[in-house]
Design a protein that fits this description.
The protein has 112 residues and is mostly helical. The chain contains five helices and no strands. Helix 3 packs antiparallel against helix 4. The chain starts with 12 loop residues before the first helix and ends with a helix.
Length: 112
């Protein structure tokens, strides 16, 4: 499905917000707090963190928006590339960590 995620879908955002206004208000408040420019973390780093999270959650819309924001905040291609590999390493690390859990659960199940 080449058109599964399509930028045109962003045009439905107003509908989504209107259909669930309470939840949308809470989400948009959290989003505004995370994306504020007056925090201790500079804008460029907020955007690189956002890209890393978007890569691990595989949100194409977030990757698009935060990459554009990162460029505006002064990020370089090299920083985007490093961010991608840092995100990949942490995602892989999570699988290893959960592998430890799987081994413990296996041992517990085998001991019964």
């Amino acid at each position: 499905m080449n058109d599964y995620q399509n930028r045109a879908d962003l045009g439905l955002a107003r509908d989504l917000i209107a259909l669930a206004p309470t939840e949308a208000k809470a989400f948009l408040g959290l989003k505004a707090a995370a994306e504020r420019s007056d925090g201790a973390i500079p804008d460029k780093y907020r955007e690189l963190i956002s890209i890393a999270v978007a890569l691990t959650t595989q949100c194409a819309y977030c990757i698009d928006a935060h990459t554009k924001n990162a460029v505006q905040a002064g990020a370089t291609r090299e920083e985007i590339a490093e961010t991608a590999f840092i995100a990949a390493a942490l995602k892989a690390g999570a699988a290893v960590g959960h592998g430890l859990l799987a081994l413990r659960l296996f041992d517990e199940a085998s001991a019964r």
